[in-house]
Amino acid sequence: MVSYKELGLVNTREMFAKAIKGGYAIPAFNFNNMEQLQAIIKASAETKSPVILQVSKGARNYANQTLLRYMAQGAVEYAKELGWEHPQICLHLDHGDSFELCKSCVDFGFSSVMIDASSLPYEENIALTKKVVEYAHQYDVTVEAELGVLAGVEDEVASEVSHYTKPEEVVDFATRTGCDSLAISIGTSHGAYKFTPEQCTRDPKTGRLVPPPLAFDVLDAIMEQLPGFPIVLHGSSSVPQEYVDMINQYGGKLPDAVGIPEEQLRKAAKSAVCKINIDSDSRLAFTAAVRKVFAEKPGEFDPRKYCGPARDLMEELYKHKIINVLGSDGKAE
Ligand SMILES: [Zn+2]
């Protein structure tokens, strides 16, 4: 048993309480490799933003859970080295799908876990979530649960259609499970193809797809039921067109990739939404930068020469999200 507290990590409780009061949201960035982690920590340290490092099931399969945990521990020390005196870094399991997996993360130094039992029938979702909460809370590890179903593909979590969270269920769910935060479905979606062209309209000037707006009425109804309760948005990448264009310009093929417009995320961040998950955007930035180097310098074969620019572009992206979208800069001095 390793406690996250020994590693210098923090859970989400205080982060979320402050974020709701302050009208901003904490960035939750997924990571699978060193360059991503370096970029996340540099961006957070330089902007003094609290940050959630997320490890998904796919990341665990790709990079190994043990290695990722030690990387997160290293990230705390790296942050201090960068001059961030009191780093507010949370290590979170994204989309845990079983009690055993959540338990192993709690035992292994994670400060927060998500149990995603949203695909199960309501009562089974409650039972499994409650079991995880009872275990995690013994070690002061916070638990995110999910109610409602998001469309799209994220690693091994996939669903064809979304089902909005039912506001009439949230009080019963939160009370009976004791979860610390709730991921809801209001129209965000996993991946870089959040909407089909049929779901969108087209901007006549640019020819680009304009996605349908998020269901803010559902969010409002949830907040009315659970005042001040931490709400989480998954699948909240914006799929910046500049990266999509760069990828396509340098030999890639991402037709009609579309995300959540940033002004909608800005609006959400000001509400009880206090954690916004961003994964696809950093994948796009990484890929765009690597493709550019490969196209412009076909003789290059030193990974540092293409992973380096990828890291720089991701850092720029993370800073942009922190400062211009979530408003979390300067909140962890
Ligand atoms: Zn997710």
Fold and architecture overview:
This protein is of the alpha/beta class. It has one domain: Aldolase class I (TIM Barrel, Alpha-Beta Barrel), CATH 3.20.20. Helix content is 45%, strand content 16%. The chain contains twelve helices and 13 strands. The protein has helices at residues 13-22, 34-47, 57-63, 65-81, 99-107, 122-137, 170-177, 216-225, 241-249, 262-269, 280-296, 303-326, and strands at residues 26-30, 51-55, 89-96, 112-115, 142-147, 151-154, 157-159, 181-184, 189-190, 201-202, 209-210, 231-233, 273-278. It has an eight-stranded parallel beta barrel, surrounded by ten helices. A three-stranded mixed beta sheet has the order 7-6-9, with no helix packed on it. Helix 5 packs parallel to helix 6 (122-137). The relative contact order is 0.16. Bound molecules: zinc ion. The site of zinc ion has 6 residues, from loops.
Quick tags:
about 325 residues, about 45% helix, TIM Barrel, 3-stranded mixed beta sheet, 12 helices, 8-stranded parallel β-barrel, alpha/beta, binds zinc ion
Describe the structure concisely.
This protein has 333 residues and is an alpha/beta fold.
CATH structural class: Alpha Beta
Provide the residue-averaged pLDDT: 94
Rg from C-alpha positions?
A: 19 Å
What's the total helix number?
12
Strand content: 15-25%
- Helix content range: 40-55%
Give the biggest sheet.
Answer: 8 strands, parallel, barrel
| SSE pattern, N- to C-terminal | HEHEHHEHEHEEEHEEEEHEHHEHH
Order of strands, main sheet, comes to 1-2-3-4-5-8-12-13
CATH topology tier name: TIM Barrel
The tally of structural domains comes to: 1
N-to-C span:
30 Å
E-strand count: 13
CATH homology superfamily name: Aldolase class I
Q: Helix/strand-derived class?
A: alpha/beta
